[in-house]
Write a structure and sequence with these properties.
Length: about 600
C-alpha cells in the first residue's frame, strides 16, 4: 500500500484461467475459481481505498479525529509488519461496503445527516484493527457510533454517554489493546468486550468458517445500521441451523459447497420473514457476505446460501468486465420477483436461480416423501423459469460479448436439465406455478393500448364477432402495489411440506392474507384441488373486486385444470387484455358481465 514507485509502473490486468471462466459462465466454479476471484477483489478493494484517498485531499479537516493520512500511515505500518494479515482484514466484506458508501457520500450521490467524519472514521477503526492484529504499538482516536466503537473483524465496545456519535481512543501494544470509555478501559477480548460471534463447522473435509456479523455499522449494504446483538438463544439457533445446512450442502451438493468454503466470510442475521419467503441480499462491494432473515429450517438456509453465493460470484465477475451496455426499451419479466427488472438485475437473478435449480436437482436424489415432492416441484419450477428467461436474454442486443458468453453457458446448463424426469404431480404443480406467476405479473404490470381495448369492448357490447384490432403490444407500466405474486406457489409449499399447517390455514380462509401475502380465500381451495369451490371463489372475488389480479389469474388456473379451451388460453396468455376489456364493458354498460364468456370470446393471441 505504500508509495514504492508502483504509480510509475503500468497497471496489471487480472485474467481468469479459461477453465474457471467456462465453469463460472455455466453457473458453477470450484474453490480455485473463487480463489482467483478473491485476487480480483483484493485489487478492487485497493482501488476503492485509492479513490477515497484521492478525494479526501491532504489537510481535509475531519476533527475531532486525526487526519486521514494519520490513519493511512498506521494501516501501512501494519501491512509492513504482516502483509497477509492486513490483506485478510481488507477483504472483510464490510470494508468494501463502507468504501463504496463513503465514496458515494464524497461524490454527492449518497446523503446522510451524520457528520462526514463519522463515516470517514471507519478508516481509523480499520487501522486500529490492523495494528492489533499485527501486534504493533499504537494510539488513535476513533469514532463512536450509536453508542459503540466497532473494530472490524474483532468486535465492539459499548461507549455510553456519546449520543448518536462521538469519539474515543483506542491504544495497544503487542497485540493487546483497550478502548477508553467513561466507565474505564475495556480490554479488547476481555470483560465488557462484544466479540464478533463466529461459526465453524466441518463436514467431509469441507470447513465453513464465518462470522455472524451483527456489530459492524456497514453490514446492511445500503446505509449504516446500529449494532443488533444476538442473544444466547438466537446465537445457538443460528449455529445449529448453519451446522445442519452445511452438512446438507456438502452431502447433497458438494460442487456448490466447495466454493463457499473458500469465499464465504460472513452472514448478517435478520429477524424471520414470512414462511417460504426468506429475505436475503448481497452486493458487489461486499464479496463474501450475505444478509439473511432467519430461515425456517436447514433446507431453506442451504438454498438461500446457494442463492446469495451465486450473486457473490457474479458480482466479482462484474468487477472484471461488464455484461451489458444500456438497457432495453422496457423493463423485463423476472419469474422470481414481483416487479419489472432492469437488464442487470435480470442477469443477476437468472445466475442465482441457476444455482438454486442445480441445488434442487441434486438434493432430490437424496430426498423422499414430502421433502422429495418439494424438491421435485422446485426443480421443475425453476428449470422452466430459468430456461425461459435465458431465451429472452439471448435475444437482447444490449449484451456485451462477455454477457453473451455467460448467457450461452447458462443455456447449455439449463438445456441439460430439461430431459430429467419429474413425477407427474409435482411437475403439474410446477407448470401451474409458472403459468400463475406470469399471468399475475402481466395483470399488474402490462397495459394494453386504449384503442385496442375500446375496439374489443365495442364489438363485445354489440354482440359482434371478435375482431383482432391492430395496435402496439402491451407496455410495461410498473405497479408499485404488486405483492405476493407467488402466493399460490407458497401455499403449494405449505401443502407439500406441512399438511397439518396447511389444514390450519384452511380453517380460517378469511385470514389467509395475514399468513401468506397476496393470497385470497379461494387460493386455499385451488391448492387443495377443490376446483369447483375455487372457481366460485374467484368469480365471487371478481364481483367485489373486478380488478383483482389474483382472482383473474386464479380463474385461468382453474379453467386450465379443466382442460384446454379458448377462455383458459386467453387468461394464461393475455389476462391483462381480458381484464381491460371487462373493465371497459362494465364502465360503458354498467353490467359486470361473465368473465369466463368474455375470456372465451377474446381467446388466445
Amino acid at each position: 500500500m505504500g508509495n514504492d514507485g508502483a504509480a510509475d509502473r503500468p497497471p496489471r490486468y487480472h485474467r481468469l484461467d479459461k477453465q474457471h471462466v467456462t465453469a463460472l459462465f455455466s453457473g458453477g466454479g470450484d474453490a480455485d475459481s473463487v480463489a482467483q476471484l478473491l485476487t480480483v477483489e483484493r485489487s478492487w478493494r485497493m482501488l476503492q481505498l485509492r479513490a477515497l484517498l484521492d478525494i479526501v485531499r491532504p489537510g481535509n479537516d475531519i476533527r475531532p479525529l486525526p487526519s486521514v493520512e494519520t490513519a493511512w500511515k498506521l494501516l501501512i505500518e501494519a501491512e509492513r509488519r504482516d502483509p497477509p494479515e492486513v490483506a485478510d482484514l481488507l477483504l472483510h466484506p464490510q470494508v468494501g461496503v463502507w468504501a463504496g458508501y463513503v465514496l458515494r457520500r464524497l461524490r454527492g450521490t449518497a446523503h446522510s445527516p451524520v457528520p462526514l467524519w463519522v463515516d470517514l472514521g471507519y478508516l481509523h477503526t480499520l487501522a486500529a484493527a490492523a495494528a492489533l492484529r499485527t501486534g504493533i504499538d499504537f494510539r488513535i482516536t476513533v469514532p463512536v457510533r450509536d453508542g459503540f466503537t466497532v473494530l472490524p473483524t474483532l468486535g465492539a465496545a459499548r461507549v455510553p454517554g456519546t449520543g448518536q456519535w462521538g469519539h474515543t481512543e483506542v491504544h495497544g501494544a503487542g497485540g493487546s489493546g483497550v478502548v477508553d470509555t467513561p466507565g474505564g478501559e475495556v480490554l479488547v477480548g476481555g470483560d465488557g468486550w462484544q466479540a464478533l460471534p463466529g461459526v465453524r463447522v466441518e463436514a467431509d473435509g469441507q470447513t465453513l468458517a464465518i462470522h455472524l456479523e451483527c456489530l459492524d455499522p456497514y453490514r446492511n449494504l445500503r446505509t449504516p445500521t446500529p449494532p443488533r446483538l444476538l442473544n444466547g438463544s438466537e446465537l445457538r439457533h443460528w449455529r445449529e441451523l448453519l451446522s445442519q445446512a452445511w452438512r446438507l450442502l456438502v452431502e447433497t451438493s458438494p460442487l456448490l459447497a466447495a466454493p463457499m468454503a473458500q469465499g464465504l466470510f460472513s452472514l448478517v442475521p435478520q429477524p424471520p420473514a414470512e414462511r417460504f419467503r426468506t429475505m436475503s441480499a448481497s452486493a458487489g462491494d461486499a464479496f463474501g457476505s450475505m444478509i439473511m432473515s432467519e430461515p425456517q429450517d436447514a433446507i431453506e438456509l442451504a438454498v438461500t446460501m446457494v442463492h446469495e453465493f451465486q450473486h457473490i460470484k457474479l458480482g466479482a465477475l462484474l468487477h472484471l468486465a461488464p455484461l451489458h451496455t444500456g438497457e432495453p426499451a422496457q423493463k423485463l419479466y423476472a419469474p422470481w420477483r414481483n416487479d419489472p427488472r432492469p437488464l442487470g438485475g435480470l442477469l443477476q437473478g437468472v445466475y442465482a436461480f441457476a444455482g438454486i435449480t442445480e441445488f434442487w436437482r441434486t438434493f432430490r436424489e437424496r430426498a423422499s416423501d414430502s421433502i422429495g415432492a418439494l424438491a421435485h416441484f422446485e426443480f421443475a419450477r425453476w428449470r422452466q423459469q430459468v430456461r425461459a428467461t435465458l431465451g429472452v436474454l439471448a435475444e437482447l442486443p444490449q449484451l456485451t460479448a462477455v454477457g453473451e458468453d455467460l448467457v450461452q453457458g447458462l443455456i447449455a446448463t439449463a438445456d441439460r436439465w430439461q430431459s430429467e424426469s419429474v413425477p407427474a404431480r409435482p411437475l403439474a404443480a410446477a407448470d401451474a406455478a409458472v403459468t400463475d406467476h406470469r399471468a399475475r405479473w402481466r395483470l399488474h404490470h402490462l397495459r394494453q393500448s386504449a384503442d385496442v381495448v375500446a375496439a374489443l369492448a365495442t364489438s363485445w357490447a354489440a354482440g359482434a364477432d371478435r375482431p383482432e384490432p391492430a395496435g402496439p403490444p402491451p407496455m410495461v407500466t410498473a405497479d408499485p402495489s404488486a405483492r405476493g405474486l407467488d402466493a399460490r406457489a407458497v401455499l403449494t409449499l405449505w401443502r407439500l411440506t406441512d399438511a397439518a399447517g396447511f389444514e390450519q390455514l384452511r380453517r380460517d380462509p378469511s385470514a389467509i392474507g395475514v399468513h401468506v401475502t397476496g393470497a385470497i380465500a379461494a387460493d386455499l381451495a385451488y391448492v387443495a384441488g377443490e376446483l369447483d369451490q375455487a372457481r366460485q371463489g374467484y368469480l365471487a372475488e371478481l364481483t367485489t373486486d373486478p380488478s383483482s389480479p389474483s382472482a383473474w389469474a386464479g380463474l385461468g388456473l382453474v379453467l386450465t385444470a379443466g382442460g384446454p379451451g379458448r377462455a383458459a388460453d386467453a387468461l394464461r396468455q393475455r389476462p391483462e387484455l381480458v381484464r381491460a376489456v371487462h373493465r371497459a364493458v362494465r364502465r360503458s354498460t354498467g353490467e359486470i358481465g361473465n368473465p369466463v364468456q368474455l375470456a372465451e370470446w377474446i381467446g388466445p393471441g
